[in-house]
Amino acid sequence: MALANLTSTPEFLLLGLMDGTDIHPLLFLLFLGVYLVNALGNLSMVVVVRSDGALRSPMYYFLGHLSLVDVCFTTVTVPRLLAGLLHPGQAVSFQGCFAQMYFFVALGITESYLLAAMSYDRAVAVCRPLHYGSVMTPWRCTALVGASWAVAHLHSLLHTVLISKLSYPRSAPVRHFFCDMTVMLSLATSDTSAAETAIFSEGLAVVLTPLLLVSLSYARILVTVLGVRSAGGRRRTFSTCGAHLVVVSLFFGSILSVYFRPSSAYSARYDRLASVVYAVVTPTLNPFIYSLRNKEVKGSLKRGLRWRAALQEV
After folding, report:
1. What pairs with residue 90 in β-bridges?
2. Taking a C-beta distance cutoff of 8 angstroms, is the pair 116, 199 a contact?
3. Residues in domain G-protein coupled receptors family 1 profile (predicted)?
4. Does some domain include residue 50?
């Protein structure tokens, strides 16, 4: 069936974020600005972590990978979103549509597991500070990142293959700004039960595992911090963890509300708005919440700016 789909070459028409076109120019400027901020913030973090020898701890190792995933994650969807705001109803080939879906799902799941790894790292740092170096070894950090990428790509490959095997109309309008799994299932003209079963079983396990790990890590941090006598220490930790939990809740909450519900409850309008949260908003917030509030990162950025200014003077 997949070969048949490729032979008949179905074409999908992306209708974009909004049905009306009145505010498209304003939305274009808004999302262009957000994308540039996202790229600048995340790429700056990647460069800083790679180039500054003072940022060699496991926390910054995970932050560097998270920033790289975030900029790639938004790049999969936002450029096409911007093009759709300028020219609504863009045609996308079958291959292009499913390639976008594959990378979007793979990068999204990678991000969820990296968030889990980072929460585990913080839990070890707060709850077992004397054993931090022996627990978070370079090998373990590399293994956590490698496992995140491997699980994500295997998960994405499974769902992309299952959904691409379905039959589609030769030309189908897609009420979304990218080729998402829920949209493709709603467009399919053949039986979608196998793909839906995989999403609700294997997919739910893949998404709930990092969410459970994040919840357990922050619960342990909370218990440990409540035992700290210093009010200032508790306040600083609660402030940092609270900001992290807001971003994590937005990310996982929007994903669960979009992908894990009956197909009869599908709503194109809701899906598009929820997708903006986890595909655009949280990847843009991450470098500011996780990194730019950090004194060491700020110091590294300042040193980099001073070094650049000194070079320009020479």
Report:
1. 14
2. no
3. 41-290
4. yes
The Cα angle at residue 287 between residues 285 and 289, in degrees rounded to 5: 65
Give the tens place of pLDDT for each residue, 162-203. Answer: 999 999 988 888 888 899 888 898 889 999 888 888 888 887
Distances (CA, A) of 62 to 138, 180, 245: 11, 27, 17
Q: C-alpha dihedral over 199, 202, 205, 210, to 10 degrees?
A: -90
**What's the pLDDT tens digit per position in 94-153?**
999 999 999 999 999 999 999 999 999 989 988 888 999 899 999 999 999 999 999 999
Q: What is the mean pLDDT of residues 291-297?
A: 64
> For residue 307, is it within any domain?
no
Residue 276, both tokens? 């903006």
Residue 241: give its domain's CATH number.
1.20.1070.10
Task: Please answer whether residues 163 and 191 qualify as being in contact, where contact means their C-beta atoms are separated by less than 8 angstroms.
Answer: no
Q: How many domains does the chain divide into? A: 1
Q: Structural domain of residue 45, as residue ranges?
A: 2-294
Residue 314 lies in a domain: no
The answer as to whether 309 is a domain residue is no
Q: Are 206 and 259 in contact (CB under 8 A)?
A: no
Q: Tell me the residue type at 274.
A: A
* Angle made by CA atoms 35, 37, 42, in degrees to the nearest 5: 95
* Mean pLDDT (whole number) for 61-77: 94
